[in-house]
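I hope you will forgive my troubling you with a question about protein structure. The record follows directly beneath this note:
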Amino acid sequence: MENLNAILAPGMLVRHPDCAEWGVGQVQSNIAGRITVNFPDAGKMVIDGAHVALELVHDA
Protein backbone atom coordinates (compact mmCIF):
# COMPACT_ATOMS: atom_id res chain seq x y z
CA MET A 1 0.00 0.00 0.00
CA GLU A 2 2.84 2.39 0.70
CA ASN A 3 3.87 2.41 -2.98
CA LEU A 4 0.44 3.61 -4.09
CA ASN A 5 0.39 6.35 -1.46
CA ALA A 6 3.98 7.40 -2.20
CA ILE A 7 2.87 9.40 -5.25
CA LEU A 8 0.45 11.54 -3.23
CA ALA A 9 1.53 15.17 -2.92
CA PRO A 10 -0.04 18.29 -1.42
CA GLY A 11 -2.99 19.52 -3.44
CA MET A 12 -3.97 16.11 -4.84
CA LEU A 13 -7.56 14.95 -4.31
CA VAL A 14 -8.27 11.57 -2.70
CA ARG A 15 -11.00 9.41 -1.21
CA HIS A 16 -10.72 7.06 1.76
CA PRO A 17 -11.83 3.62 0.50
CA ASP A 18 -13.69 2.74 3.72
CA CYS A 19 -15.17 6.16 4.51
CA ALA A 20 -16.97 7.44 1.41
CA GLU A 21 -19.10 9.68 3.64
CA TRP A 22 -16.00 11.83 4.28
CA GLY A 23 -16.14 13.06 0.68
CA VAL A 24 -13.20 14.01 -1.53
CA GLY A 25 -10.26 15.28 0.49
CA GLN A 26 -7.22 17.34 -0.39
CA VAL A 27 -3.78 16.06 0.59
CA GLN A 28 -2.00 18.51 2.91
CA SER A 29 1.22 16.54 3.43
CA ASN A 30 2.79 13.12 2.95
CA ILE A 31 5.66 12.54 5.36
CA ALA A 32 7.13 9.09 6.01
CA GLY A 33 3.89 7.36 5.00
CA ARG A 34 1.68 9.52 7.22
CA ILE A 35 -0.70 11.38 4.92
CA THR A 36 -2.61 14.38 6.22
CA VAL A 37 -5.82 14.97 4.30
CA ASN A 38 -8.46 17.66 4.77
CA PHE A 39 -11.87 16.07 4.13
CA PRO A 40 -14.90 18.39 3.74
CA ASP A 41 -17.18 16.24 5.92
CA ALA A 42 -14.65 14.87 8.42
CA GLY A 43 -12.03 17.58 8.82
CA LYS A 44 -8.28 17.05 8.92
CA MET A 45 -7.32 13.38 9.21
CA VAL A 46 -3.91 11.72 9.43
CA ILE A 47 -3.89 8.45 7.50
CA ASP A 48 -1.31 5.69 8.01
CA GLY A 49 -0.35 4.84 4.45
CA ALA A 50 0.90 1.40 5.53
CA HIS A 51 -2.67 0.39 6.39
CA VAL A 52 -4.91 2.40 4.03
CA ALA A 53 -4.49 2.84 0.27
CA LEU A 54 -6.15 6.16 -0.50
CA GLU A 55 -7.89 6.43 -3.88
CA LEU A 56 -6.69 9.19 -6.19
CA VAL A 57 -9.54 11.32 -7.59
CA HIS A 58 -9.01 12.51 -11.16
CA ASP A 59 -12.21 14.51 -11.55
CA ALA A 60 -14.02 16.02 -8.59
Notes: Residues 2-56 form a domain with the SH3 type barrels. fold (CATH 2.30.30). The longest strand covers residues 25-31. The helical segments are 2-5.
